[in-house]
Write a structure and sequence with these properties.
- This protein has helices at 2-16, 25-33, 51-67, 71-76, 145-151; strands at 88-93, 97-99, 102-111, 114-125, 128-138, 141-144.
- With 156 residues, the chain is of the alpha+beta class.
- It has a single domain (21-151), classed as Nuclear Transport Factor 2, Chain: A (Roll).
- Strands 1, 2, 3, 4, 5 and 6 form a six-stranded antiparallel β-sheet that branches.
- The relative contact order is 0.17.
- This is DUF3828 domain-containing protein.
- Residues 1-21 form the signal peptide.
- Keywords: Signal.
């Protein structure tokens, strides 16, 4: 009976997929950028976002999809590479500064030759570290992800 319970628990954990709990902010950032380097499947970015930011994203995605011709623009926008097309190289993830349950780190890279500088704010939630906001700080590309989602960048 014990072995049956153990086998059942293993089966359930296998079906549920790998746990996405990140013990450190650096581990979270490395996991985010692995797919862009051809080291993992990209998947939905929502799994990396804090409950607050994912709620904003889901609400805005639903609103835009229901009322605009720009639903593909928002759905395809990847804030980690500043667009929908990505081929980043020269990736540099700085060591995060951690203060209690909050952290921030810069990430820089070139995407199709264009330099990018991102500031990624993170928060520790019950299931590990998550991204709480993303700021593009590069030349000519200044935005805050939560602001883009809240203000409706497509003018609807």
């Amino acid at each position: 009976m014990r072995h049956a319970r153990l086998a059942f628990a293993i089966l359930l954990s296998t079906l549920a997929g790998p746990a996405l709990a990140f013990d450190t902010p650096k581990a979270l950032l490395e996991a985010i950028y692995q797919p862009y380097q051809g080291q993992a499947e990209r998947g939905d970015i929502g799994r990396f976002l804090s409950a607050r930011l994912e709620d904003i994203r889901q609400n805005q995605t639903s609103t835009v999809a229901a009322s605009a011709d720009h639903s593909d623009d928002l759905a395809n926008f990847d804030p980690f590479v500043q667009g929908d097309a990505f081929f980043p190289f020269d990736l540099l993830i700085a060591e995060p500064a951690v203060l209690g349950d909050r952290a921030i780190a810069t990430v820089s890279f070139r995407n199709f030759g264009a330099p990018s500088l991102m500031s990624i704010a993170m928060v520790r939630e019950s299931d590990g570290w998550k991204v709480d906001d993303i700021a593009s700080m590069g030349e000519g590309e200044n935005w805050l992800y939560s602001w883009l989602l809240t203000v409706d960048p497509f003018g609807n």
